[in-house]
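Bumping my old thread because nobody answered last time. Still need a sequence for this structure:
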């Protein structure tokens, strides 16, 4: 019985030293990382002009200021066409639909762009749109290929551009 008790004590000490102690150190490390991330998030909010003391109305006003004014619609469209040109794509036709609701503070401009190009060109085009026009949202992308061996794709991209009613 004494040998069994001693062997269980040694086994328990081994488990404690090999499993529990390293995990305690890992918990401490994760807690420090969590505190660092919280401080970084707080600093980002303060730099963005948002703090806990701001009321909801102020935060909502700042949110709506993010969106370009409706009269900047042509400039945003020019960025989209420039992105297509930069990727070597030609936008020959497009469907435009302007949706203004006086009850909402945002208006929507829906675009449907038929494009022909390689998958990489189309993907880079969409990435460039989202980088140059952050108030844009991709609603749908559909791809069609004439044959398996065809390098070019026919794509149909549906975008929604959001504008503030300023």
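Sorry it took so long. Here it is:
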């Amino acid at each position: 019985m004494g040998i069994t008790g001693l062997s269980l004590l040694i086994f328990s000490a081994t488990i404690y030293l090999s499993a529990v102690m390293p995990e305690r150190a890992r918990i401490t490390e994760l807690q420090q990382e969590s505190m660092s991330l919280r401080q970084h998030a707080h600093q980002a909010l303060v730099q963005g002009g948002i703090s806990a003391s701001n009321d909801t109305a102020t935060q909502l006003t700042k949110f709506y200021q993010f969106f370009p004014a409706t009269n900047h619609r042509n400039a945003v469209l020019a960025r989209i066409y420039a992105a297509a040109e930069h990727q070597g794509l030609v936008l020959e036709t497009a469907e435009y639909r302007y949706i203004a609701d006086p009850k909402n503070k945002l208006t929507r401009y829906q675009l449907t762009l038929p494009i022909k190009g390689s998958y990489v060109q189309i993907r880079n085009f969409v990435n460039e749109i989202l980088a140059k026009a952050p108030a844009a949202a991709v609603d749908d992308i559909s791809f069609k290929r004439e044959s398996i061996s065809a390098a070019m794709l026919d794509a149909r991209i549906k975008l929604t551009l959001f504008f503030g009613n300023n």
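The chain has a mean pLDDT of 87. Let me know if any region looks off to you.
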